[in-house]
Write a structure and sequence with these properties.
By secondary structure, this protein is of the alpha+beta class. It has 2 domains: 280 residues, Zn peptidases (Aminopeptidase, 3-Layer(aba) Sandwich), CATH 3.40.630.10; 114 residues, Alpha-Beta Plaits. Helices cover 41% and strands 18% of the residues. The longest helix is centred in the N-terminal third of the chain and has 47 residues. The radius of gyration is 28 Å and the shape is globular. The N terminus is likely disordered.
Length: 503
């Protein structure tokens, strides 16, 4: 039997359509399967996280209870105790390596899981040292953590022991659930961040090969709010100076010598007053010479941030704003340089009684936050020149230089590293993250970039109102679960996306 050409063609077309339909169906099924697999995997991590919530909360309270204060020599054993605690925790969850690495200061805790050959490596940074406390200002003892209204209260609860543990718990959830990680992971936990991480750059230089990684995250970061995620895009640099004004070899009786003897406190006040214009700008010659104002893109970024300056004023109890009001509040915080007096001392300052003396010495400490092309050393040199020029009659000055300068830094948004962080935040929050700046300085992120050649994007769960560095510091319990899920998804997402690129 013969078949007409038209009938044969019709059959051929039908068969091809059927084949294509089946192929599309298979591809869609495959895609659906991968999505369901990813969802299922995340769900299994959720179960582990929820089942171990009480145990993890107990661990956080235990870690917060150890007063690992960076600046008090008597607390050095507590610094070491926290480091040892973290090492033990890393060993318990099954990390390949867990150890302390000595530095010129406090040890860095290092942990690694390296059983995913050919897969990318993610480096995660956080710190375990904490700020000092004034116990009289706390409603609850700072190192006796307490749960109140869905928050854990205690020094270091937000900054940054929660950051340390959230990342460890996420890895733990994946290892306990899957028996492996989708990528290689390296932890570095800093013990000197609160004093500027003076030993960290040298640590990186000495261990450059050991720390080689494809991506990096900073767990000492924050989100904009409980419902709105954010990604840090810029940091200001910093420079510090202390200077001492001397007008006499000794303090003088105010009745016997008052009216004719130079007063160091007055001389210091005159110098400080000369730092500023009536409008609140810095009057030091050359201070703004190399400043590049915020770009149009950065100004558009600012417009998207729902910032209410009055809330900050309410939190701080202030009644007015300072600085150049031709710039918006966020622009002033993120993209304008500052010169601030952070400490002063002169004369008799005991809480009780008084002493009728004319101070012969006065001291002030300055911190500058720097932007764009500014150099810390150049700015300090300009300030010294200004002080020398404006020194009152009868006064001499000596300086104490820190020689520790942190440069400004910007993070690019056109990298896959940025996209992976953005995707993870969107997955868990359901909202696209805001791009934000930060008025402070985070030296380790700059050191990681300069030494290892990668950007450490911030992926922390702190929030601005959690009273970091202040009395009654706290951390939201809801952020613990959310943070673990973000890190679980991020690690799996990096593996999946990088695998696509290798095919």
């Amino acid at each position: 039997m013969t078949i007409s050409k038209s009938l044969a063609l019709s059959i051929f077309v039908s068969l091809n359509l059927l084949a294509n339909t089946n192929s599309i169906a298979q591809n869609n099924k495959s895609k659906t399967s991968k999505k369901e697999q990813a969802k299922s995997s995340l769900t299994s991590y959720e179960k582990y996280i929820d089942d171990n919530n009480d145990a993890h909360l107990k661990e956080l309270m235990e870690l917060v209870s150890i007063p690992s204060i960076f600046s008090i020599p008597a607390n050095k054993p507590d610094i070491d105790k926290v480091a040892a605690w973290i090492v033990n925790k890393l060993k318990t969850i099954g990390m390949t390596t867990a150890q302390t690495i000595p530095t010129d200061g406090n040890s860095v805790v290092y942990g690694s899981w390296d059983k995913a050959p050919g897969k990318p490596t993610v480096l995660i940074y956080a710190h375990y040292d904490v700020q000092p406390v004034k116990e009289s200002e706390w409603d609850n003892p700072p190192f006796a953590p307490k749960i109140v209204d869905g928050k854990i209260l205690g020094r270091g609860s937000s900054d940054d022991k929660s950051g340390v543990l959230i990342t460890i718990w996420a890895v733990e959830a994946m290892l306990r659930t899957d028996g492996k990680l989708p990528v290689n992971v390296k932890f570095i936990f800093d013990g000197e961040e609160e004093k500027g991480s003076p030993s960290f750059k040298n640590f990186l230089d000495k261990n450059k090969d050991l720390l080689k990684s494809d991506f990096a995250l900073n767990a000492d970061g924050s989100q904009y709010s409980e419902t709105t995620p954010s990604i840090l895009m810029s940091l200001r640099g910093s420079a510090i100076l202390e200077f001492n004004i001397k007008t006499a070899n000794t303090d003088a009786h105010s009745g016997q010598f008052g009216g004719k003897t130079p007063n160091a406190a007055v001389a210091l006040s005159q110098i400080i007053s000369s730092f500023y214009t009536k409008e609140g700008n810095v009057a030091v010659e050359g201070f703004y010479d190399k400043v590049v104002t915020a770009s149009l893109q950065e100004k558009e970024m600012i417009k998207k941030v729902p910032y209410d300056a009055s809330k900050d004023m309410k939190v701080l109890g202030t009644t007015a704003e300072t600085g150049d009001t031709t710039f918006s509040p966020l622009e002033r915080i993120w993209y304008r340089p500052t010169l601030e007096i952070i400490g002063m001392q002169s004369g008799y300052t005991a809480p009780e009684g008084h002493s009728n003396i004319i101070p012969g010495n006065a001291m002030a400490r300055i911190t500058c936050r720097l932007v764009n092309n500014q150099s810390g050393k150049e700015i300090i040199d300009l300030i010294v020149k200004h002080i020398n020029k404006n020194l009152p009659a009868g006064a001499t000055v000596t300086y104490k230089f820190s020689n520790s300068y942190t440069r400004p830094m910007k993070f690019p948004a056109d990298t896959k590293a940025y996209n992976y962080v953005s995707d993870a935040l969107f997955k868990i929050y359901g909202n696209q993250p805001l791009q934000i700046g930060h008025g402070g300085s985070i030296g380790p992120l700059i050191d990681i970039n300069e030494t290892l050649g990668i950007y450490a994007y911030s992926l922390g769960l702190q929030q601005a109102d959690e009273r970091k560095h202040s009395a009654n510091e706290f951390f939201r319990l809801s952020s613990i679960r959310k943070g673990q899920l973000i890190y679980c998804y991020y690690l799996q997402h990096v593996a999946d996306e990088e695998n696509k690129l290798t095919k």
